[in-house]
């Protein structure tokens, strides 16, 4: 690899060992789903905000664009470089420090490269709860969670990553550092910069640190697994769960039979309950501030009424934490089971909860007509109106050929139905490159124009993650 003046400058900033070249970049340039392979000029691994700032400045001087990356678990191909070999991939993973814990303010300030699971653990050790939870938590970073405004399985109670954040530190496109880590719950001094950077997928600035909220730990958490006959019944169960549990409802996930069949087939040791006899299963979680027995009583009353009203055909309440963990593990294994089955076509959509049953019924029908035998793998955060409406090649079919032939047409069917029902084509994963060309068809022209103006104002030379989102 030729040592360009830029590479030499980057080596001076972060040290030679932290500028990776050639084969050493391999794990950074392919997306999690193994669909796309990019090529980087180099991977640079700064260890501090000051180093990030200097890296951005020398790249800006050289006119070389930067792709920020955290854990590289994103599902929309936004964190890998283009295949030109001309972009610098900036990995935040070395930045792992906990900068401060403020128990009275109930906040924790961390570097952007802290892995989500480690953040959860450190908050737990401090006596609090950090509620963001998702299948990739063992490798995604809090910087990546913020850059994508990740959702996950606790949104119904605690909100998206945006709602958990009270402050950011960001390196701008010209290498300045904006320090906004005060951790204030109220601050109306003009435009909300924090919320502008959250969800911007690395296109407006590089998040180097964040101040996140910590929450009181619940006294008890209970998990139930239920068999439900239809999606209407699942929506009715959600409404009933809100009534019975109020703010104690912390999780409400739906999984269709096909999704659970894939988990059963790839991970039979997980012993998926009830899936063979039920078109849908729903996983519910209650977090109670009083006691386990109080939570159990609430849960039992809810499930009794749901069974009386035939919303639920069968139910189990986990007896202990291990059982609860095992049930959640089944839910979190769907994405992996889908990947093990072969490349597939994903849609991460949101709709008003009340529209979901009709949306699924008509979209299922249209897709079955388009691709006979198509496997419809439907699951997700029903409590937030967010479905992962995914599809897989017919049983025994060629997965790659299925994706190559039908991805576009399937996407059109799904997104047109989303539009008709008043939904969004990206609920939580973001736009990246995967949905970039769809966005103009599904977002208002005024909104798009404003987004282009913001991008031009904050990154006039288009150096931060160009070609992503817009
Ligand atoms: P990356 O993948 O590295 O990057 C994602 C985007 O953010 C890219 O555009 C990148 O350029 C940008 N970026 C990363 N770090 C920074 C930074 N410090 N500053 C600026 N830009 C940055 N997502 C959900 O929302 N909910 C889920 O339930 C969920 N479940 C998942 C389950 C599995 C098994 C997998 C593989 C993924 C799942 N995801 C989910 C998607 C993914 O985990 C999230 O998008 C996560 O927030 C990405 O974090 P990351 O550190 O891996 O970011
Ligand atoms: C999840 O909720 O498990 C992921 O966001 C979904 C996916 O893989 O589509
Ligand atoms: Zn999800």
From TrEMBL:
<dbReference type="GO" id="GO:0003824">
    <property type="term" value="F:catalytic activity"/>
</dbReference>
<dbReference type="InterPro" id="IPR036318">
    <property type="entry name" value="FAD-bd_PCMH-like_sf"/>
</dbReference>
<protein>
    <submittedName>
        <fullName>FAD-binding oxidoreductase</fullName>
    </submittedName>
</protein>
<dbReference type="Pfam" id="PF02913">
    <property type="entry name" value="FAD-oxidase_C"/>
</dbReference>
<dbReference type="InterPro" id="IPR016169">
    <property type="entry name" value="FAD-bd_PCMH_sub2"/>
</dbReference>
<keyword id="KW-0285">Flavoprotein</keyword>
<dbReference type="InterPro" id="IPR016164">
    <property type="entry name" value="FAD-linked_Oxase-like_C"/>
</dbReference>
<dbReference type="GO" id="GO:0022904">
    <property type="term" value="P:respiratory electron transport chain"/>
</dbReference>
<dbReference type="InterPro" id="IPR016167">
    <property type="entry name" value="FAD-bd_PCMH_sub1"/>
</dbReference>
<dbReference type="InterPro" id="IPR006094">
    <property type="entry name" value="Oxid_FAD_bind_N"/>
</dbReference>
<feature type="domain" description="FAD-binding PCMH-type">
    <location>
        <begin position="36"/>
        <end position="217"/>
    </location>
</feature>
<comment type="similarity">
    <text>Belongs to the FAD-binding oxidoreductase/transferase type 4 family.</text>
</comment>
<dbReference type="InterPro" id="IPR051264">
    <property type="entry name" value="FAD-oxidored/transferase_4"/>
</dbReference>
<dbReference type="InterPro" id="IPR016171">
    <property type="entry name" value="Vanillyl_alc_oxidase_C-sub2"/>
</dbReference>
<dbReference type="Pfam" id="PF01565">
    <property type="entry name" value="FAD_binding_4"/>
</dbReference>
<dbReference type="InterPro" id="IPR016166">
    <property type="entry name" value="FAD-bd_PCMH"/>
</dbReference>
<dbReference type="GO" id="GO:0071949">
    <property type="term" value="F:FAD binding"/>
</dbReference>
<keyword id="KW-0274">FAD</keyword>
<dbReference type="InterPro" id="IPR004113">
    <property type="entry name" value="FAD-bd_oxidored_4_C"/>
</dbReference>
């Amino acid at each position: 690899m030729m040592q360009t003046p830029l590479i030499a400058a980057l080596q001076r900033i972060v040290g030679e060992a932290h500028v990776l070249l050639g084969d050493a970049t391999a794990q950074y340039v392919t997306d999690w789903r193994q669909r796309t392979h990019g090529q980087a000029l180099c991977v640079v691994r700064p260890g501090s905000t000051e180093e990030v700032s200097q890296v951005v400045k020398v790249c800006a001087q050289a006119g070389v664009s930067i792709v920020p990356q955290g854990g590289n678990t994103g599902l929309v191909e936004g964190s890998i470089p283009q295949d030109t070999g001309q972009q610098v991939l900036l990995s935040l993973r070395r930045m792992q420090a906990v900068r401060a814990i403020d128990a009275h303010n109930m906040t924790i300030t961390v570097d952007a490269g802290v892995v989500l699971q480690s953040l959860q653990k450190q908050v737990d050790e401090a006596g609090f709860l950090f509620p963001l939870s998702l299948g990739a938590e063992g490798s995604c970073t809090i910087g990546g969670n913020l850059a994508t405004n990740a959702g996950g399985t606790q949104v119904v109670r605690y909100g998206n990553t945006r709602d958990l954040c009270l402050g950011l530190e960001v390196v701008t496109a010209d290498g300045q550092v904006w320090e906004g880590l005060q951790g204030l719950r109220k601050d109306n001094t003009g435009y909300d910069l924090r919320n502008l950077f959250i969800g911007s997928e690395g296109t407006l600035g590089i998040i180097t640190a964040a101040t996140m909220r910590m929450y009181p730990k619940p006294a008890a958490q209970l998990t139930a697994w239920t068999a439900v006959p239809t999606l209407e019944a699942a929506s009715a169960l959600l409404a009933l769960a809100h009534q019975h549990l109020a703010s104690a409802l912390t999780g409400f996930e739906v999984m269709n039979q096909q999704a659970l069949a894939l988990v059963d087939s790839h991970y039979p040791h997980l012993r998926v309950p009830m899936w063979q006899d039920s078109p849908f299963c729903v996983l519910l979680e209650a977090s109670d501030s009083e006691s386990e027995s109080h939570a159990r009583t609430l849960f039992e009353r809810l499930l009794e009424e749901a069974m009386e009203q035939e919303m639920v055909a069968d139910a189990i309440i986990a007896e202990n934490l291990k059982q609860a963990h095992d049930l959640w593990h089944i839910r979190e294994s769907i994405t992996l089971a889908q990947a093990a089955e072969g490349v597939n076509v994903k849609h991460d959509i949101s709709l008003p909860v009340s529209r979901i049953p009709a949306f699924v019924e008509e979209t299922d029908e249209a897709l079955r007509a388009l691709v006979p035998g198509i496997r419809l793998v439907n699951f997700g955060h029903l409590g937030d109106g967010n479905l992962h409406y995914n599809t897989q090649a017919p049983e025994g079919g060629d997965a790659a050929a299925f994706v190559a032939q039908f991805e576009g047409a399937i996407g059109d069917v799904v997104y047109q139905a989303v539009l008709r029902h008043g939904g969004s084509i990206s609920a939580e994963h973001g736009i990246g490159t995967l949905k970039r060309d769809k966005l103009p068809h599904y977002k208002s022209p005024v909104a798009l124009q404003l987004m282009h103006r913001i991008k031009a104002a904050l990154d006039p030379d288009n150096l931060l993650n160009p070609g992503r989102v817009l």
